[in-house]
UniProtKB/TrEMBL annotation, chain A:
UniProt main location, coarse: membrane
Similarity comment: Belongs to the adaptor complexes small subunit family.
Region forming the signal peptide: none
Biological source species: Equus asinus (Donkey)
Gene transcribed to yield this protein: AP1S1
Protein location: Cytoplasmic vesicle membrane; Golgi apparatus; Membrane, Clathrin-coated pit
Domain AP complex mu/sigma subunit: 10-149
Protein name (Swiss-Prot/TrEMBL): AP complex subunit sigma
Topology of the protein relative to the lipid bilayer: Peripheral membrane protein
Subunit structure: Adaptor protein complex 1 (AP-1) is a heterotetramer composed of two large adaptins (gamma-type subunit AP1G1 and beta-type subunit AP1B1), a medium adaptin (mu-type subunit AP1M1 or AP1M2) and a small adaptin (sigma-type subunit AP1S1 or AP1S2 or AP1S3).
PROSITE patterns: CLAT_ADAPTOR_S
Gene Ontology CC, one term: clathrin-coated pit
Automatic annotation (TrEMBL), chain B:
Identification of the protein by name: AP-1 complex subunit gamma
Domain GAE: 688-803
Family per similarity comment: Belongs to the adaptor complexes large subunit family.
Any single biological process term in GO: intracellular protein transport
Compartment(s) where it occurs, according to its Swiss-Prot or TrEMBL record: Cytoplasmic vesicle membrane; Endomembrane system; Golgi apparatus
Keyword annotations of the record: Cytoplasmic vesicle, Golgi apparatus, Membrane, Protein transport, Transport
Membrane topology: Peripheral membrane protein
Protein source organism: Equus asinus
Coiled coil segments of this chain: none
Cellular component, GO, one term: AP-1 adaptor complex
Length: 166, 808
């Protein structure tokens, strides 16, 4: 049990479809594009080969992988040295909840067509692989405010138009 | 014409585009979502590539001289394409430009791009340091947030050093939004540049008083990072154990907030993190451990375990209890919680339980043993993640008192387990058997069963180990060879099994045929069956070259163990003399020569192996070497009974008799001369061939001598006595003895047999080795006894007309 110097670090998080299409990739460790592609391909194969009733954890290379399927999307986290896979499951679930709240009953298409938003939400929830904020409300509020800023930025013209002042 | 709502201006260039009417200078640029739609509309990979290439051309052009207002859109499209696996490096500089823009939208996409396209491996990454610095010091909260996020995702060591002060300042920012991000950025900075600990350690004390969960969480993560990098920091932060305990206690009792709770558990993320830190601080420290005991007990007993969140906290608690210097009772409680987890219907819970128990099996062996039955049940899990853990744990739980039962379970598992676990299971069983075997027979049985069930998956040394084991268990030779014979007859595909069986049959073939063995039911095996089986192995395409080697050698050994004639064996051996496999060919040629020229030595060479010292894969070689060394001593043994009779013979010669049969090695290095002799395929040509000599003839039985003077050893004379029988009746019980003058040394090798078959059948041969260091004239007397046509015959005579070349 004594594992001194073992730092809990999330290496990366992936979202991919049942057909093996990548929908999001967040890397917390510098890796070359080539290496990333290889790892993604490999890991997708391993995870997609799992049967529905199997547990959410598997060992892959020198990492532990925690994954869960939500509808047509697999959410996959690769962690190293993490002792507690169960809390990582909670982490994944929280992210899905955030997406769900934001998009309103989120589905894969939402994430495909609004991939930047998926990243923005993730970046409000996690930083460097660690949880920034454990309050769903707080995270969603931050996204909301940023979206607002973006809107104000983007086309003040259209806001005026909306107000009927154009 | 407005298409899609936006335009980009292409200066002076008409870009061919289906969307563009002829002659227009303006090219509409797709919205991100439109591009995505178009890509998804592509029916083939080639089509997709085409769409993307075309769009990338647009994007490139736009980057060059397009409207900066829409740069963010172009980059976003590029990022999408990048996710699909297409190159996007030409967007890196655009990220820089966007980040430097004052517009929030630009920064948002720019920073995202930086996180996706830039990392410390690119030179360009340093260029954003300045922008980040500006944003950190002058930006709005949202902008600061973007900058901090990016820094913590891809900040290199250099960047971290440059920006540490900015981040430190932000730890004191009034906005909790920024503070929480600053803390986690500090975590990243410490990971990259451990020296920065000096900067970020002092603020921790204050930060621990935060009420904001996010900041608290980040602070605890920061403290963990500091402690794990510096023993001094670890010592320093032990002071805060009481404070941490208080925080957690508050969280449990009064800190319930709907905002942070999951399934009725207060902020499980924060709880887990606190518990983790407590673990680090309490490890190897009595006092700290003492302080947290009660709290841990409280969490362990009060956490709602109906949902995963509660179990996650409970699990972390267990891990902490087991890692610190906790009270004994608390430890037992923790192990029992794991035991309960093993019975949980949730697979994930069972998984973490198995993993943790595995880590405990050394330190808390007896505690874990109590859960052995449950662990063994987990072997049946269809999920390999779980069955693998269960296997590892089961193997770790084997001890001398449960070895029989456990091996039984594991053997059952081996039969049906998934392929990727077979090797581990097989070697695990073999290892356990080696350590805890109650009896030798059980051990042999166990190995045999493993080889039969999963022979293809055992390690290479399994064969050597088993042969060693069997060899050493003399009382079990008959049993072993019988069981192995039966196993082999059923299945010749499992190579390790085949190899061991072949070896055994070769060694103990005589016991196989004897028919009775107490341990198992009687087995009637015919010689022909045994030979046929070994031939099958030889011919099978499933047999590895090594296996065929084993089979060939076994056949050869049987030539001395079986009673029948060796024609069949000789045939096989001579056929393989032209085998394509060089190793096999060499063996076959050697064995064939053994039959043809050195038949009298065959029995000695193919004797039963002495027990070898345990020593890894070289066992066979060692055995062979020691066998060769001992051959010299062994050889004279069969001639021992002749010695007494020979003294009579010697009386007839000049000079006082000498014990010419004393088994003195012929030369100082016995191995040398013998190796020379065994160097059969290329026997050294004699200096000049000495003519054969016919020395005896009676009623069809003839004796002739052939001579060899090896050039390397001039004092040595090799005489081969060959007896042939052209009469109608067999000559049986044939014994030939020899005597030489005192100054000579004589050694008789074992004869090839004691029967000279009638009608010109296989001759009997015997080798005489005579050492004549003084080059004295050779005199040789022979004594023959045999039975022919029902009569006993004895003949004594001196050999006349010995050629001078035999001694000069």
């Amino acid at each position: 049990m004594a594992r001194m110097g073992q730092r809990i670090e999330m290496r990366f998080m992936l979202l991919f479809s049942r057909q093996g299409k990548l929908r999001l990739q967040k890397w917390y460790l510098a890796t070359s594009d080539k290496e990333r592609k290889k790892m993604v391909r490999e890991l997708m194969q391993v995870v997609l080969a799992r049967k529905p009733k199997m547990c959410s954890f598997l060992e892959w290379r020198d990492l532990k992988v925690v994954y869960k399927r939500y509808a047509s999307l697999y959410f996959c986290c690769a962690i190293e040295g993490q002792d507690n896979e169960l809390i990582t499951l909670e982490l994944i679930h929280r992210y899905v909840e955030l997406l769900d709240k934001y998009f309103g009953s989120v589905c894969e298409l939402d994430i495909i067509f609004n991939f930047e938003k998926a990243y923005f939400i993730l970046d409000e929830f996690l930083m460097g692989g660690d949880v920034q904020d454990t309050s769903k409300k707080s995270v969603l509020k931050a996204i909301e405010q940023a979206d607002l800023l973006q809107e104000e930025d983007e086309s003040p013209r259209s806001v005026l138009e909306e107000m009927g002042l154009a | 014409m407005l298409v899609g709502g936006e335009w980009t201006e292409e200066r002076g260039k008409a870009v061919p585009d289906l969307r563009e009417p002829e002659g227009r200078m303006l090219v509409p640029s797709l919205k991100v979502q439109d591009l995505i739609e178009e890509i998804r509309g592509a029916k083939t990979q080639a089509q997709e590539r085409e769409v993307i290439q075309k769009e990338c051309a647009h994007i490139r052009a736009s980057f060059r001289d397009g409207d900066p207002l829409h740069r963010h859109r172009q980059l976003a499209k590029l990022l999408y394409v990048h996710m699909l696996g297409y190159p996007a490096h030409f967007g890196q500089m655009e990220c820089l430009k966007l980040i430097a823009s004052p517009r929030f939208t630009d920064k948002r996409v720019g920073y995202l791009g930086a996180m996706l396209l830039l990392d410390e491996r690119q030179d360009a990454h340093l260029l954003i340091t300045n922008s980040i610095k500006n944003d950190l010091s002058q930006g709005t909260q949202a902008v600061q947030g973007l900058a901090l996020c990016t820094l913590s995702t891809m900040g290199s060591a250099e960047m971290c050093r440059d920006l540490a002060t900015e981040v430190e300042k932000l730890l004191l920012q009034p906005s909790p939004y920024v503070r929480k991000k600053a803390v986690l950025t500090a975590v990243h900075m410490i990971r990259k540049v451990p020296e920065l600990s000096t900067v970020f350690l002092p603020p921790c004390a204050q930060l621990l008083h935060e009420r904001h969960h996010g900041i608290l969480l980040g602070t605890i993560t920061l403290i963990m990072e500091l402690c794990e990098r510096s023993p001094a920091a670890l010592k320093h932060f032990r002071k805060v154990v009481p404070q941490l305990v208080q925080i957690l206690r508050t969280l449990l009792t009064t800190g319930y907030s709907t905002e942070h709770s999951i399934s009725g558990v207060s902020d499980p993320f924060l709880q887990v993190q606190i518990l983790r830190l407590l673990r680090i601080l309490g490890r190897n420290h009595e006092e700290s451990s003492e302080t947290m005991n009660d709290l841990l007990a409280q969490v362990a007993t009060n956490t709602d375990t109906s949902r995963n969140a509660g179990n996650a906290v409970l699990f972390e608690t267990v891990l902490t209890i087991l890692d610190i210097r906790s009270a004994a009772g608390l430890r037992v409680l923790a192990v029992n919680i794991l035991g309960r987890f093993l019975l949980n219907s949730d697979k994930n819970i069972r998984y973490v339980a198995l993993t943790s128990l595995l880590r405990l099996v050394q330190s808390d062996h007896s505690a874990v043993q109590r859960h052995r039955p449950t662990v063994v049940e987990c072997l049946q899990e269809p999920d390999t993640s779980l069955s693998r853990r269960a296997l590892e744990l089961s193997l770790a739980l084997v001890n001398s008192s449960n070895v029989r039962a456990m091996t039984q379970e594991l053997q059952g598992f081996l039969q049906s387990c998934p392929t990727d676990l077979r090797a581990d299971c097989a070697s695990g069983i073999l290892l356990a058997a080696e350590r805890y075997a109650p009896t030798k027979r059980w051990h042999i049985d166990t190995i045999l069963r493993v080889l039969t069930t999963a022979g293809a998956h055992v390690r290479d040394d399994a064969v050597a180990n088993l042969t060693q084991l069997i060899g050493g268990a003399q009382e079990l030779h008959a049993y072993s060879v019988r069981r192995l014979y039966c196993a082999l007859a059923e299945d010749i595909s499992q190579q390790p099994l085949v190899q061991v069986a072949a070896w055994c049959i070769g060694e103990y073939g005589d016991l196989l045929l004897e028919g009775s063995c107490e341990e198992i039911e009687p087995l009637q095996v015919e010689e022909e069956e045994v030979l046929a089986l070994l031939e099958r192995v030889l011919q099978s395409h499933m047999s590895l070259p090594a296996t065929r080697g084993y089979a060939l050698t076994a056949l050869m050994k049987l030539s001395t163990r079986l009673r029948g004639d060796n024609n069949r064996i000789r045939q096989v051996v001579s056929i393989y003399g032209s085998c394509l496999d060089v190793e096999l060919q060499q063996r076959a040629v050697e064995y064939d020569t053994l039959f043809r020229k050195y038949d009298h030595m065959r029995a000695a060479i193919l004797e039963k192996m002495p027990l070898v010292e345990r020593g890894g894969p070289q066992v066979d070689e060692e055995a062979k070497e020691s066998k060769e060394a001992r051959l010299l001593e062994a050889a004279p043994v069969p001639t021992e009974p002749q010695a007494s009779k020979l003294l009579d013979l010697l009386d007839l010669l000049d000079g006082p008799s000498e014990d010419a049969q004393h088994p003195r090695p012929l030369d100082p290095s016995p191995g040398g001369a013998l190796v020379h002799l065994l160097d059969l395929p290329c026997a050294p040509p004699p200096a000049a061939p000495i003519p054969n000599l016919k020395v005896f003839e009676r009623e069809g039985l003839q004796l002739s001598l052939s001579f060899v003077r090896p050039p390397e050893t001039p004092a040595l004379l090799l005489i081969t006595v060959t007896a042939t029988n052209t009469s109608g009746g067999d000559v049986t019980h044939f014994i030939c003895q020899a005597a030489v003058p005192k100054s000579f040394q004589l050694q008789l090798q074992a004869p090839s047999g004691d029967t000279v078959p009638a009608q010109g059948g296989l001759p009997m041969t015997q080798l005489l080795r005579i050492l004549n260091p003084n080059k004295a004239p050779l005199r040789l007397k022979l004594r023959l006894t045999y039975t022919h046509f029902g009569q006993s015959v004895q003949e004594i005579f001196e050999v006349n007309n010995l050629p001078v070349e035999t001694w000069q």
